[in-house]
Write the structure tokens for this entry.
Amino acid sequence: GAGVSQSPSNKVTEKGKDVELRCDPISGHTALYWYRQSLGQGLEFLIYFQGNSAPDKSGLPSDRFSAERTGGSVSTLTIQRTQQEDSAVYLCASRPNTGELFFGEGSRLTVL
Amino acid sequence: TQLLEQSPQFLSIQEGENLTVYCNSSSVFSSLQWYRQEPGEGPVLLVTVVTGGEVKKLKRLTFQFGDARKDSSLHITAAQPGDTGLYLCAGYFTRTASKLTFGTGTRLQVTL
């Protein structure tokens, strides 16, 4: 596709369940980012990939959060044993070598 | 930890009014970007500023980068309802930085 694609767009889960969020970046973009946004506030950095490696994962809030990227393309953010405070919109963005980030529309996660 | 503070957090104005949004940090930016986000969508880049004192104009929007590269402002002239959205500043703190740190956001509402 022409833009960054994220799925699912909406996810409702019960506390304690695991969830996977997927991001398809723009073809050829080497960098991929995950951010979290709560209640229309600013974006909280989670993790950055360059190719398949993650040189900066400093924003992951706990060891329940993990992410991987395969083939220099698709990335998956996994949240284990979800908690209510994990409810947020999870945004993925990709970037060519330099410059702006191109964002997907986000995955809205609601933990009941 | 590098923080970007934006002010005001929320602004409600009438069509035709002027406004200014501020973005401040205690650290020096290598470069700074402004994004606008509309409900249900990801942020979209408006401008990138790199040089201290730089001023860029985008139609009715004027962006300024502080001389010391620690602050920036966004001025909108004669606001229109289409300007409604969440405005986010975001900065790279070193030239080789991979992590783009976002500000706290300013929610603008322009009414008729």
